[in-house]
């Protein structure tokens, strides 16, 4: 009995509620995940101590293992926010049929993905994506429809849009990293620091190595004269700040105060 | 090959990745109770180790045909049970995704897209999937329609109080559904389509005007809610021009009670449920029916458990 108890974690209603809610959201920022965890304890086991999030999630993951899914932690490429997403570990033909998206929509995503990977900035313009609409497999799609499909991808957190350009959402990177590295080995860019897939980042103008923005922030933290770790040339880009959850909370609170003022005026 | 994650529903292209590992729980027969599963897991691991030893022995002594044959058999067995586990996992994912889209799952779809040639193992696979859904997610797999073999998932976790309920995006839509269910109930368990739209128009919801919370209300109500079996939509006989009416669908009957809906309506009007004596009486009768049904189900399960316990004792 001891052996199997170690292999598989224990699920209680606290864990089940957490999993259900996480599934509904798909992907959630760390501070929301912590709030979610607390909420689940309050609903189902008010007197218990809230387990450390990492252990809590590891416990659930050990149970999810036999279902080929996992709660994975990632970090957003633009500002280094930690987030959690429920990710599939193996390909199944099932999902192809049970999909939310039609064949032509999936192909649109694939085309956008290829443009994003090939780009220098990690962004593909709306125009360039829409120009490929005629090449899509499946039912013919008009540009107007394609615009809405792209918005669907953004709403479902597969793509991010910034000023008419699209890049991959952190969750898509988390889930598709292996696929991308194996399918586009030549076009794939990697971060020199963490050695993971890189879509957005900074690059050295001399030797061309790339780094994620949060990796840059951590590597050059409090370094007044940043130099390329590879060729030692001066690092010409602005060094971003390391993500600080405390500062985030303060900013959030001031935002809330502004919001409540607006409602009171009504 | 495209593949779909648990949520959001985008089939994500991923490379084939075989997950290997002895802990995969290579059970050959899936039983419904988790407690029964655990000893089976331990047993099959022993079997696994024995198979490995056999394979090792076969490798070092190629002339021992018997050892090779049994090692091959053990390998086939392991592959078969791994495939079975894989199929159960796919089934779980399929059911979760389909349920998230809120479309009832038919046995036909399940066999076509998940089970394939393992058709003979359908009962084991569905039982295994049901157990995972119950233990891991807190969902109960229920057969909605005995004739057409359709399934839905019911949330078995304790229902949240209104203060505890978080806005999950689904909230506004279900709120709209509640309004409609309330109207239907108060009108005597069916409401004409015209009445429903009149009520909604008063709330600023128009059938074909995009609403920031509900999208296109006509599509939500006429397609989604009906498809999800929350609402029934049928033609009223002998009406010309044809009129249509809504009534509660089977899923509504499973997921919510008349008393709860009456309570919701009462709160809206800032009154007590007893303010509507006819509806209150009907709701009370409905509560009694539900309690009776639950009690008889519990007795049946207890009886079954007792019978199986007796049977297993007899085996010893």
Described by the principal axes of the CA atoms, the overall outline of chain A is globular
Tally the helices of chain A. 11
What percent of the residues of chain A sit in helical stretches (DSSP H or I)? 40-55%
How far apart the termini of chain B lie comes to 50 Å
Beta-strand share of residues of chain B: 5-15%
Low-confidence stretches of chain A: 1-6, 258-266
Task: Name the helicity range of chain B.
Answer: 55-70%
Radius of gyration of chain A: 21 Å
What multimeric state do the chains show?
heterodimer
Strand order of the largest sheet of chain A: 1-3-2
Question: Tally of extended strands of chain B?
Answer: 6
Mean pLDDT over the residues of chain A: 85
**What is the percentage of strand-forming residues of chain A?**
5-15%
Unreliable stretches of chain B, pLDDT < 50, 5 or more residues? 1-52, 54-59, 162-169
Mean pLDDT rating of chain B = 75
**What is the string of helix and strand elements of chain B?**
HHEHHEEHEHHEEHHH
Largest interface: A-B, 59 and 57 residues
Cα-based radius of gyration of chain B, to the nearest Å: 26 Å
How do the helices and strands follow one another from N- to C-terminus of chain A? Answer: HHEHHEEHHEHHEEHEEEEHH
Find the structural class of chain A using helix and strand composition.
alpha+beta
InterPro entries (chain B): MAGE (IPR037445), MAGE_WH1 (IPR041898), MAGE_WH2 (IPR041899), MHD_dom (IPR002190)
Protein name (chain B): Melanoma-associated antigen F1
Biased composition (Basic residues) (chain B): 299-316
Pfam family, one (chain B): MAGE
Protein model, in words:
- The complex is a heterodimer of chains A (266) and B (316).
- Chain A has 266 residues and is of the alpha+beta class.
- Chain A is built from 11 helices and 10 strands.
- Chain A has helices at 2-7, 13-25, 30-44, 53-64, 93-97, 103-118, 126-130, 143-155, 170-183, 213-219, 245-265; strands spanning 27-29, 69-75, 82-88, 124-125, 159-162, 165-168, 189-190, 197-198, 202-203, 210-211.
- Chain A has a 3-stranded antiparallel β-sheet.
- In chain A, helix 2 (13-25) packs antiparallel against helix 3 (30-44).
- The radius of gyration of chain A is 21 Å and the shape is globular.
- Residues 1-6 and 258-266 of chain A have low confidence and may be disordered.
- With 316 residues, chain B is mainly alpha-helical.
- Helices cover 57% and strands 9% of the residues of chain B.
- Chain B has 10 helices and 6 strands; from the N terminus they run ααβααββαβααββααα.
- In chain B, helix 1 runs antiparallel to helix 2 (65-100), helix 2 (65-100) crosses helix 4 (122-137) and helix 5 (171-186) crosses helix 9 (258-268).
- The radius of gyration of chain B is 26 Å and the shape is elongated.
- Chain B starts with 33 loop residues before the first helix and ends with a helix.
- Classes of the chains: A alpha+beta (266), B mainly alpha (316).
- Chains A and B meet through helix 1, helix 2, helix 3, strand 3 and helix 5 of A and helix 1, helix 2, helix 3 and helix 4 of B.
């Amino acid at each position: 009995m001891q052996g199997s108890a170690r292999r598989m974690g224990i699920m209680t209603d606290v864990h089940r509620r957490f999993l259900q809610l996480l599934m509904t959201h798909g992907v959630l920022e760390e501070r929301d995940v912590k709030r979610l965890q607390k909420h689940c304890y309050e609903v189902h086991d008010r007197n218990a101590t809230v387990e450390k999030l990492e252990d809590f999630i590891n416990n659930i993951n050990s149970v999810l293992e036999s279902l080929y899914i996992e709660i994975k932690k990632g970090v957003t490429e633009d500002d280094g926010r930690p987030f959690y997403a429920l990710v599939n570990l193996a390909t199944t033909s099932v999902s192809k049929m049970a999909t939310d998206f039609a064949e032509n929509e999936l192909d649109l995503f694939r085309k956008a993905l290829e443009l994003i990977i090939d780009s220098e900035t990690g962004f593909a313009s709306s125009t360039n994506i829409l120009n490929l609409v005629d090449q899509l497999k499946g039912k013919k799609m008009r540009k107007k429809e394609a615009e809405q499909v792209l918005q669907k991808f953004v709403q479902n957190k597969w793509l991010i849009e910034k000023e008419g350009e699209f890049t991959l959402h952190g969750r898509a990177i988390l889930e598709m990293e292996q696929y991308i590295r194996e399918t586009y080995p030549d076009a794939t860019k990697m971060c020199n620091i963490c050695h993971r897939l890189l879509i957005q980042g900074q690059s050295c103008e001399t030797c061309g190595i790339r780094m994620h923005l949060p990796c840059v922030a951590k590597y050059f933290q409090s370094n007044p004269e940043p130099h390329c770790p590879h060729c030692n040339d001066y690092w010409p880009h602005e060094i971003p700040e390391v993500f600080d959850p405390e500062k985030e909370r303060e900013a959030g609170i001031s935002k809330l105060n502004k919001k409540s003022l607006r409602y009171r005026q009504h | 090959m495209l593949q779909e994650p648990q949520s959001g529903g985008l089939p994500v292209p991923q490379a084939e990745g075989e997950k290997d590992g002895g802990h995969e729980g290579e059970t050959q027969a899936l039983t419904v109770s988790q407690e029964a599963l655990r000893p089976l897991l331990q047993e099959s691991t022993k079997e696994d180790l024995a198979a490995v030893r056999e394979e090792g022995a076969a490798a070092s002594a190629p002339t021992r045909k018997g050892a090779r044959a049994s090692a091959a058999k053990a390998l086939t067995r392991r592959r078969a049970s791994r495939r079975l586990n894989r199929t159960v996992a796919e089934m779980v994912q399929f059911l979760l995704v389909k349920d998230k889209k809120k479309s009832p799952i038919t046995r036909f779809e399940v066999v076509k897209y998940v089970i394939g040639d393992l058709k003979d193992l359908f009962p084991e696979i569905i039982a295994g999937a049901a157990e995972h859904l119950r233990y891991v997610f807190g969902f109960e797999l229920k057969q909605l329609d005995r004739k057409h073999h359709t399934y839905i998932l019911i949330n078995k976790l304790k229902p949240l109080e209104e203060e505890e309920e978080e806005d999950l995006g689904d909230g506004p839509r279900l709120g709209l559904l509640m309004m409609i269910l309330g109207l239907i109930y108060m009108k005597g368990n069916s409401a004409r389509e015209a009445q429903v739209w009149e009520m909604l128009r008063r709330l600023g919801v128009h059938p074909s005007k995009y609403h920031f919370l509900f999208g296109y209300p006509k599509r939500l109500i006429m397609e989604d809610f009906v498809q999800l079996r929350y609402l029934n939509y049928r033609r009223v006989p002998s009406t010309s021009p044809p009129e249509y009416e809504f009534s509660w669908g089977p899923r509504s009957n499973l997921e919510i009670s008349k008393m709860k809906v009456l309570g919701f309506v009462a709160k809206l009007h800032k009154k007590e449920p007893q303010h509507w004596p006819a509806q209150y009486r009907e709701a009370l009768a409905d509560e009694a029916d539900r309690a009776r049904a639950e009690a008889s189900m519990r007795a049946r399960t207890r009886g079954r458990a007792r019978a199986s316990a007796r049977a297993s004792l007899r085996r010893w």
